[in-house]
Amino acid sequence: MRIDLSNKVIVITGGAGDLGSAMALQFAQAGACVAINYHRNEKVAKNLLSRISEFSERCCIVYADVTNNDDVYAMYKIVMKKYGRVDVLINNAGRNNDGYTTLMSEKQWSSVITTNLTGTFLCSRVFSKAMIRDKRGKIINIASLKGQLGSEGQANYAASKAGIIGFSKSLAKELGPEGVSVNVVCPGYIKTNLNSGSIKKREIAENMSAMSVEYSKKDFENFMLFLASDMIKGVSGQVYNIDSRIM
Ligand code: NDP
Asked: Does residue 187 have its Cβ closer than 6 Å to ligand 1?
């Protein structure tokens, strides 16, 4: 079945990253107008847009550091000027900076919390204004299974992702009466730039899993395509794990 997103304006933070660009391509192929946020890697973003331009002229790239509210507001203004609305916001920008807690500096802690959690807050805060105005919209926050399971050497990352879950459930309660849904997607392990060095962790994940399956970007983008589409409506405050670990 082909999912049609031609009536959707979708903003993806961290859109030049591995999972972000996979989603951007998939959504653009489904006809969506996609605003692809990039941060440090303008070149990758431009290459992605040029690939998309081969079949769609409806997308754009937009710079913002999601930890900086002025940048986030500027991104919002650009998106609103170009498209006039936003149907789906995907808070996907994220980073890690691993280390054992007893040795972790405050900078190491706060850099991850600020990007993953505060960035999600800042983007949700401003884009939800347009959604409330239109009485519809979807916010999809990318957390992680590690926010539920914990992860040694990654307390900052796990705490930020657990925070996203609590934030999203609260926001879902606030925005539900306005017709706006807020859900969370927790990938387990998908090999990308973020975790390319963590082979040991992947082995552990596989040992705990009900199914011996390696999840791919395709699994993730298909799931996101469904969530962003009109095939699912009225579901909010939920956490979806792309994984087979049973808690
Ligand atoms: P990538 O590192 O490829 O992508 C992360 C993206 O976030 C990068 O494009 C990065 O841009 C961007 N980003 C980081 N900081 C900022 C910032 N301050 N402002 C704007 N953008 C920023 O990793 P993935 O694609 O794997 O990760 C995407 C999301 O999925 C993340 O939230 C991650 O935590 C989550 N996730 C991934 C899993 C996996 O197995 N891959 C598992 C669970 C969750 P730049 O480098 O230019 O800063």
From this structure: yes
